[in-house]
Specification:
Number of helices of chain B: 12
Order of helices and strands of chain B: HHHHHHHHHHHH
Distance between the termini of chain B: 39 Å
Radius of gyration of chain A: 21 Å
Helix content of chain A: 10-25%
Largest interface: A-B, 43 and 42 residues
Strand content of chain A: 15-25%
Number of domains of chain B: 1
Distance between the termini of chain A: 48 Å
Structural class of chain B: mainly alpha
Structural class of chain A: alpha+beta
Number of helices of chain A: 2
Oligomer: heterodimer
CATH architecture of one domain in chain A: Roll
Strand content of chain B: under 5%
Largest sheet of chain A: 3 strands, antiparallel
Largest sheet of chain B: none
CATH class of one domain in chain A: Alpha Beta
CATH architecture of chain B: Up-down Bundle
Number of strands of chain A: 5
CATH topology of chain B: Ferritin
Shape of chain B: globular
Chain lengths: 120, 303
């Protein structure tokens, strides 16, 4: 099955097996993959909670609401196409991250954090 | 604190009166803490009958949607449909409990054993002719487009009714309506998004969406026709006369179908109430067979 963008409402599934009626389960995964980020409370950053498939950006937000915020987890949802994420490569792990390991002065470990300051 | 922990922290801090679990929250007493006194001048039999109408619409549509489970086109959509069905089931539960609380139980109480709560007795131990839902919710499922068109129509009608019902003189109905309005706004939105995508999608999806609309529209024939019960209650400020919401429903459906490049089918002529009076086709009996089979075979079973 192919995806086409027509009529201004984003990609829609096309082809003979268009998903509009109950059908026998077949391996079919043509909707793009999205990564989902949820903010649990105001003032906290969005956190990656998982991924999902959706036909377009709007439906991805919609599906994220059903899949990841059913139990009061969220006040805000971001979605981004997985393909649009640029990630660091495991091969570069050492040059990327190792240099910070021995620079203790970069870590704010010499401050005492008051007990009533959350999320530090 | 590790960021990973923060999102699901909300689980612990969720207000206990806002439980969203499918199982486990507040299942003992649906109307616990609610003043269930019948407002002055209202016939409890009328009030209970009206609760059955609204409750049965929700219960039967929930069952139709549930029939998509394991059959939906995508897992993500299956969860969405399941959530909508659960919302409706929750509304049905409160409304049937309200009917029970004013003594409208029909023959169900004789058939159900004592340990079965009123709302379960009403759901599982009434026969088809005792159900008060309309054809709009009981018609059999077609393809996915048909389901979304039906959901769009049913959610639009119900949202318009419940929005007005928030002003009901019965505080229980007003509270149930207030809770339902948020849910139905989402249901209508979900269906509308799909109708837009299917209607304004491919040639095939457009064809199926148009066919869905043609199949669903005739089901609106008796949706706006009030029964004498509804008329009496509406005059007393308790219920909403469904004729009142016709204009809004027509406007919303016309808007969505227009944007979806679909042709609005002709509006059916008003028909006298059928489903609201217990007249149903064989499809409701089949649906109830599936819905009630287990409870009737094993009354008060737990697992």
């Amino acid at each position: 099955m192919s995806m086409t963008s027509e009529g201004g409402h984003g990609a829609v599934p096309t082809g003979p097996e268009v998903p509009v009626e109950p059908k026998a389960a077949t391996a079919r995964r043509d909707w793009p993959l999205y990564e989902v980020f949820v903010r649990g409370k105001r003032g906290i950053n969005h956190v990656h909670v998982g991924s999902l498939h959706a036909p377009d950006d709007e439906m991805a937000v919609h599906a994220a609401r059903d899949l990841y915020t059913r139990r009061n987890e969220g006040v805000s949802i971001w979605v981004v196409r997985s393909a649009d994420i640029t990630a660091s490569s495991p091969d570069e792990k050492d040059p990327m991250f190792a240099p910070s390991g021995d620079k203790v002065y970069r870590h704010p470990t010499f401050y005492e954090i008051p007990e009533n300051v959350p999320h530090m | 604190m590790a960021h990973e922990e923060t999102v699901y922290e909300a689980l612990d801090h969720a207000h206990s009166d806002e439980g969203h679990w499918a199982f486990g929250t507040g299942f003992d007493e649906p109307l616990a803490g609610v003043d269930t006194t019948v407002p002055e001048g209202v016939d409890p039999a009328d009030l209970g009958e009206y609760c059955l109408m609204l409750g049965d619409d929700a219960l039967v549509l929930a069952q139709r949607l549930t029939q998509w489970i394991t059959n939906a086109p995508e897992l993500e959509e299956e969860v969405a449909i399941g959530n909508i069905a659960l919302d409706l089931l929750g509304q049905a539960r409160l409304l049937l409990a309200r009917a029970g609380s004013v003594g409208v139980l029909g023959r169900s109480r004789e058939r159900a054993t004592e340990s079965i709560p009123d709302e379960d007795a009403l759901a599982y131990f009434r026969d088809p002719d005792e159900f008060r839902c309309t054809a709009l919710v009981e018609a059999e499922n077609g393809d996915f487009a048909h389901t979304m068109l039906r959901l769009l129509a049913a959610a639009t009608v119900r949202l318009a009714v419940l929005a007005r019902l928030r002003e009901s003189r019965d505080p229980v109905l007003a509270a149930i309506a207030a809770k339902g309005v948020n849910e139905l706004t989402y249901h209508r939105d979900h269906a509308a998004r799909w109708v837009l995508r299917l209607g304004d999608g491919t040639e095939e999806s457009h064809r199926r969406a148009q066919a869905g609309a043609e199949a669903v529209w005739p089901l609106l024939a008796d949706v706006f026709s009030a029964t004498p019960t509804e008329q009496r209650l509406a005059a007393g400020g308790i219920a909403v006369d469904p004729a009142e919401v016709r204009g809004e429903v027509h406007a919303v459906l016309t808007e969505v179908l227009g944007r979806a490049t679909l042709t609005v089918p002709g509006w059916p002529a008003d028909a006298p109430p059928r489903g609201r009076l217990g007249e149903h086709g064989p499809e409701l009996a089949e649906l109830l067979d599936e819905l009630q089979g287990l409870a009737r075979e094993h009354p008060a079973a737990t697992w």
